[in-house]
Amino acid sequence: MTTQPVHDPRRSFAQALDQTARQIAATRPDELGKRTPCADYDVRALLGHLIAVLHKLVHVSVGGDARELPDVVRDIADDAWGGAFAEARGEVERAWADDAMLDRMVTLPWGTMPGRVALDAYTHEFTVHSWDLAHATGRLADLEPALAVEALQAFVEFAPPDERGEQGPFGPVVQVSEDAAPYTRLAAYLGRQP
């Protein structure tokens, strides 16, 4: 009898962070005020949210509750977002390098779960927010389609349309053709206008 290898989400998570880092590096200070498809954020606030998520992942790695930290970091200079993201990413990678973190229970804003489930969820969040950032700044060609395919599969399972309320990060599904590009289908599924 063979056993399935245990899923380690850190590789996909790193790919999502690589993609996000490329989008951040390409973002110019004059683009920071642009609206994003994520209704809560302009580009500056979205960048602050992405860094805040990394801080939350470090915080939960030492037993903290992610809800104890702000959802958006706001004290970063307009030309320092790339460096701030790289620094926070390094902290996350060091905090999650130990394989034991994957099975440790961590508390996120939406519940308590094993670390591997949390990293999967944040892989998909970074994938969606990379699209938000790329859409706002006109850099959609720089996105990795495989990440969108994985994220869409996860969101279909964990964010079905019939369980969405009036409040929350996802709106009603926007209809697009079945042969639309992966990020178009992902954005539309989450209620964003692709």
Automatic annotation (TrEMBL):
The lineage of its organism: Bacteria, Bacillati, Actinomycetota, Actinomycetes, Pseudonocardiales. NCBIfam families: maleylpyruvate isomerase family mycothiol-dependent enzyme, TIGR03086 family metal-binding protein. InterPro entries: CHP03086, DinB/YfiT-like, Maleyloyr_isom, MDMPI_metal-binding. Gene3D superfamilies: dinb family like domain. It holds the Pfam family MDMPI_N. It comes from the Bacteria. Residues 13-134 form the Mycothiol-dependent maleylpyruvate isomerase metal-binding domain. This is Uncharacterized protein (TIGR03086 family). It comes from Amycolatopsis magusensis.
